[in-house]
């Protein structure tokens, strides 16, 4: 138990290895999920599991889609300027 | 009597805000909104811990990253202890892990600020509704 606790604590003292690759953008998804859950928890008047999950999924999806659209737009602008 | 109830009102709102700052989501527990408080507690603590796991406690840097530190402090005053531990530069972190970790821990703090403000507003509504009911 002590070894488990010590190794858990030690993992917070050494950074993880994340490269500067396109895949590192996936770290965005858990953060968006957290934002969606917290925001909806403050906004939904009466929390019922099914409705709450539906609201969270909708917000999560709309943030992801909106960010993807912006990314594609910026990529298009970049292509126009550089070519 | 009126002054006293006004003092209680301000004191209650302050208690809700401070409790919500001390433990994320705890302001809602005082308002008997247990589900809401639990969801916020789990979401924010997880987000903050993921940030610390990715970048280590070195991302809490009150000296070289003051603006980030202010946002991180919104999580809880207990973050100051981590800041004190990491102050000497014993836990260095660079590059993408530092970026991801700073964003995670700071966004968790800013979300907690949102929750504190919302909990105070809900407390205000509850108190004014109670007073309104009593007047009727």
Layout of helices and strands, plus pairs?
The complex is a heterodimer of chains A (83) and B (136).
Chain A: H1 2-10, H2 28-43, H3 49-82
Chain B: H1 2-22, H2 26-30, H3 34-55, H4 66-73, H5 79-86, H6 95-135
Helix pairs in contact in B: 1-6, 3-6, 4-6
Please name the defining characteristics of this protein.
heterodimer, A: 0% strand, B: 6 helices
3D structure, described in words:
- The complex is a heterodimer of chains A (83) and B (136).
- Chain A has one domain (23-82).
- Chain A is built from three helices and no strands.
- Chain A is 71% helix and 0% strand.
- Chain B is an all-alpha fold and 136 residues long.
- Chain B has one domain (2-126).
- Chain B has six helices and no strands.
- Chain B has helices at residues 2-22, 26-30, 34-55, 66-73, 79-86, 95-135.
- The longest helix of chain B has 41 residues, at 95-135.
- Chain A binds chain B through residues 11-20, 24, 27, 30-31, 34-35, 37-39, 41-42, 47, 52, and chain B through 35-36, 39-40, 43-44, 46-47, 50, 52-58, 91, 93, 95-98, 100-101, 103-104, 107-108, 111, 114-115, 118.
Describe the structure concisely for a colleague.
With 83 residues, chain A is an all-alpha fold.
Number of domains of chain B: 1
Low-confidence parts of chain A lasting 5 or more residues at pLDDT below 50? none
Counted by DSSP, the helix tally of chain A is 3
Quote the distance from N terminus to C terminus of chain B. Answer: 19 Å
Give helix % range of chain A.
over 70%
Q: Give the strand content of chain A.
A: under 5%
What structural category do the secondary elements of chain A indicate? mainly alpha
Q: Tell me about the biggest sheet of chain B?
A: none
**Radius of gyration of chain A from CA coordinates:** 19 Å
Q: Structural class from helices and strands of chain B?
A: mainly alpha
Backbone shape of chain B: elongated
The number of E-state strands of chain A comes to 0
Task: List the total number of helices of chain B.
Answer: 6
| Mean of all residue-level pLDDT scores of chain A | 90
């Amino acid at each position: 138990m002590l070894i488990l606790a010590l190794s858990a604590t030690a993992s917070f003292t050494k950074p993880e290895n994340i490269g500067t690759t396109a895949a590192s953008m996936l770290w965005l998804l858990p953060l968006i999920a957290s934002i969606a859950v917290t925001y909806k928890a403050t906004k939904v008047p009466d929390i019922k599991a099914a409705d709450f999950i539906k609201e969270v999924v909708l917000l999560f999806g709309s943030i992801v889609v909106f960010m993807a659209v912006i990314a594609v737009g910026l990529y298009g602008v970049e292509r126009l300027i550089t070519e | 009597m009126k002054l006293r109830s006004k003092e209680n009102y301000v004191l209650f709102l302050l208690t809700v805000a401070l409790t919500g700052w001390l433990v994320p989501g705890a302001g809602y527990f005082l308002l008997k909104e247990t589900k809401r408080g639990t969801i916020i507690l789990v979401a924010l603590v997880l987000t903050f811990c993921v940030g610390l796991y990715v970048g280590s406690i070195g991302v809490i840097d009150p000296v070289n990253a003051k603006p980030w530190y202010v946002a991180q402090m919104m999580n809880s005053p207990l973050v100051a202890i981590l800041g004190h531990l990491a102050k000497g530069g014993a836990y260095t972190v660079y590059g993408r892990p530092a970026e991801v970790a700073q964003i995670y821990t700071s966004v968790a703090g800013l979300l907690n600020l949102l929750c504190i403000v919302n909990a105070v507003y809900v407390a205000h509504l509850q108190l004014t509704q109670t007073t309104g009911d009593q007047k009727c």
